Amino acid sequence: MNKKELLRVLEKLGMRPGRGLGQNFLIDNNLLDWIVRRNAPVEGEDVLEVGPGFGALTRKLLECGINVTAVEFDHRIAEYLRSELAVPNLHLIEADACHVDYAELFPAGRKFRSIANLPYSISTIFIAKMLELENAPVEMFFMLQKEMGERLAAEPGSKAYGALSVRCAFRYEVKIEKIVPPTVFYPAPEVESALVSFKLKKDASNDIALLRRATGIVKSLFLQRRKQMGKILASSYGKENVEAALEKVGLTWETRPDKVPYQKFIELAEALQSAQQEKQ
Fold it and tell me: Less CB within 10 Å around the terminal CB: N or C of the chain?
């Protein structure tokens, strides 16, 4: 769908793209073709698309013979998709993507990928939901704000490295594949965007309870990222437990969280639990 076609649809529906909903529609067909080639959809596989808009990417995915589950919040757009893309391999859900039960949609044993031009306003919440799934997507490929993409792919020691960087690294190899100018969208956003890939690690932990404990630790540490890890953790776990756990994983009391690789946070979650259990 190019800009002329999009404007025609918008006029027919009597609507304007909503900034609050992050409605920036892809209008560059060459880029859309590149996204499909890069992801190489396999006929019959399951793909989750959030924020399909008027179906520019959806159409190209469906043409590959895959099963697309699309989640759209805007009622007018959902109605348009029902009338224009009434095909058996499209499952359209009209809902807020941040509140959908993805574990029910994709239960254990049902492999799926997620490919989407994510609405910027929900990207953090949605990606966090994917990270928490026991049956996580085997791959994800999202259009995101460039700054967001840099955060997700950041390495320890960089300014962009934060809680979400670590949480992604628990399970995925994250890579910025392409930087995208505002001109590929209508309306054009005020920032550059990035196409970001997430590949599930072969050794990624499926211990959801452990990952949640590690996530809680990471969140608390990065809220005070300039402080010493020992001081931050001691208020919740006790000085002796923290000293024992840090020593066990090879970290010092004075270490700052933004210098720590993701593996150490998982080890730390295990060590803190062990230290607490030994005290009981």
Answer: C
Torsion over CA: 161, 163, 165, 166 (sign):
positive
85-123 pLDDT per residue, tens: 999 999 999 999 999 999 999 999 999 999 999 998 999
Rounded Cα distance between 145 and 249, Å, is: 35
Q: Which letter does DSSP use for residue 20 in this model?
A: G
Structure tokens at 167: 């949480």
Q: Which two tokens stand for residue 137?
A: 């997507």
Q: Which domains does the chain show, CATH number per domain?
A: 3-200 (3.40.50.150), 208-279 (1.10.8.100)
Average pLDDT, the chain: 94
Give the bridge partners for 50, in sequence order: 71
Q: And the tokens for 215?
A: 């996530």
3-state secondary structure 146-206: HHHHHHHCCCCCCCCCCHHHHHHHHHEEEEEEEEECHHHEECCCCCCEEEEEEEECCCCCC
